[in-house]
Amino acid sequence: MFSRDRLAKSPVFLRVGIFLLTLLLCWLPFAAILQAAIHDANRLNILAMSLLFVEFLVLLRVWTRRVYHQFPAFRSYGVGISQPQGLELLQGLAIGFITLFALFSIQGWLGWIVWRSPSPDLPRFVLEGALTGLGVGFAEELVFRGWLLQELERDYPPSTALWVNSLAFAILHFIKPWDEVWRSLPQFGGLWLLGLILIWAKRAGQGRLGLPVGLHGGLVWGFYLINVGQWVTYTQQVPEWVTGINHNPLAGIMGLLVLSGLAIYMRGRSHRIA
Fold it and tell me: Residue-wise over 9-43: b if at least 16 C-beta within 10 A, else e?
C-alpha cells in the first residue's frame, strides 16, 4: 500500500492510473443507479458525465491536499478569481469566437458556404452556446491543462509535457463506439493542434486557466451557433476534406490552416512571457 509521500514520488503514469481508478470506482455505483432509473439516453449521458465531473472535483481537492500538501487545492492548477484571470477569460472568449467566425467568413467569401438567415431562436442559441462553451471549456481545461499537465510537469520537462498532454487530449476524445471513432478520425490532427494551442495559452497566462478556458469556450460557442443555429449551407464546390469532413472544421484543411495561425500566435505569446 502506498503512503502519501511515496505516492507523490511515484512515476507519473502510476499516479495518474491510481487517480483515475479511484475516480472510476467512486463513479460506477452511482452511474449504475442512474442507468437503472433513467431510460432517456441523452439525459442519462448528461447526468452521468455531470456526476463524473463533480466527483473529479471532489477527488482532485482531496488528492492535492493529501498527496501534495498544496493549499488552496485548485489554485495550483490555475483556477482562481482575480482581475487578470477575468480579463484573460474574456480575451480568450473573444479570440476563440472571432477565430471560428473568421474561418467560416473566409469560406463564405470563397463561395464554399452560403450564410442563411438567423433563426428566430437566435437569443436562446446565444445563451445556450455561451453556457455550453464555458462549461465544456472549464471542465476540459481543468482536467487536461490543469490536473494532467501538472502531473506530467512533475516528472518531465515542459516540452515533453506539452507533447504528451496534447496527444492525450486528442486520443481521449476517441473513447466512443468504433464506428463513431472511424467516422470522426479526421478530427485527430485538429484536436492535437488545439491541445498544443491551449497549453501555450495557459503558459501565456502565467499558469492561469482563464485564457485557455475562454479560448476553448469561444470556439465551442461559435461552432454551437453555426451548427445548431444552422447558419450555413455548404455549396459542395470543394471536397469535404477542405471545408471539414462531416461539417466539422477540425477535420478539414481550412480549419487546420486557421488553427495553425492561432498556434503560431499563441506559441509566440507564451514565449514572450517565458
Answer: eeebeebeeebeeebeeebeeebeeeeeeeeeeee
The CA angle 221-225-230, to the nearest 5 degrees, is: 155
Q: What's the pLDDT tens digit per position in 40-95?
A: 889 999 999 999 999 999 999 999 999 998 888 899 999 999 999 999 999 999 99
Cβ within 8 Å of residue 31, ≥6 positions away: 48, 51, 52
Model pLDDT, residue 274: 62
pLDDT tens readout for residues 177-187: 888 888 888 99
DSSP 76-106: GGT----HHHHHHHHHHHHHHHHHHHHHHHH
Side chain identity at residue 190, one-letter code: G
Give kind and range of the element (H or E) at residue 114. strand 113-115
Return the C-alpha cell found at 266. 499563441
Contact 222, 96 (CB under 8 A): yes
